[in-house]
Specification:
Blueprint (H helix, E strand, L loop, with lengths): L3 H35 L8 H4 L8 H4 L4 E6 L2 E6 L1 H9 L2 H12 L4 H8 L3 H21 L2
Antiparallel strand pairs: 1-2
């Protein structure tokens, strides 16, 4: 036999759970909605968009263009694009290493943390800060 107090606690907890689940569903639907706006199905693409040359095809042309080479832990990372190279050189070396490893070498956050001997949270925080600095720098260019 439950007391009125226990029954009240059960109702309160049940209401809390329903609200939390409802909010989680709402949040996930919002994420899917945003993602759906960014993605296109293959059936919606034209033949011209489907059969564009791959990025690897452009490597031959890139060899003739100027690029800036950054060194991160004995790795050469070329950056094609004068403005982006300048913006990256403006960052602190540790922040630049995180951005280059993450976005140019597709290294996971945990692996970057291991290589740089720091925590994954520090890598995430520094990456977010570095991207904000890059955005500010690139927006300031006329």
């Amino acid at each position: 036999m439950t007391t009125r107090y226990e029954a009240f606690n059960e109702m309160t907890f049940e209401a809390y759970c329903k609200k939390a689940v409802g909010n989680a569903i709402k949040k996930e639907r919002g994420r899917k909605n945003v993602r759906g706006k960014l993605e296109l199905s293959f059936s919606a693409l034209t033949d011209a968009a489907l059969y564009v040359p791959s990025p690897e095809d452009g490597e031959i042309n890139r060899a003739e263009t100027n690029c800036r080479i950054f060194y991160v832990q004995d790795m050469k990372i070329p950056v094609y694009g004068e403005v982006l190279g300048q913006a990256l050189s403006w960052l602190l070396p540790k922040d630049r290493a995180i951005v280059l490893l993450c976005f140019f070498q597709q290294v996971k956050t945990d692996e970057i943390a291991r290589r740089l001997k720091t925590s994954p949270d520090t890598v995430r925080r520094r990456r977010k800060s570095a991207l904000r600095k890059l955005r500010d720098y690139l927006e300031a260019i006329p």
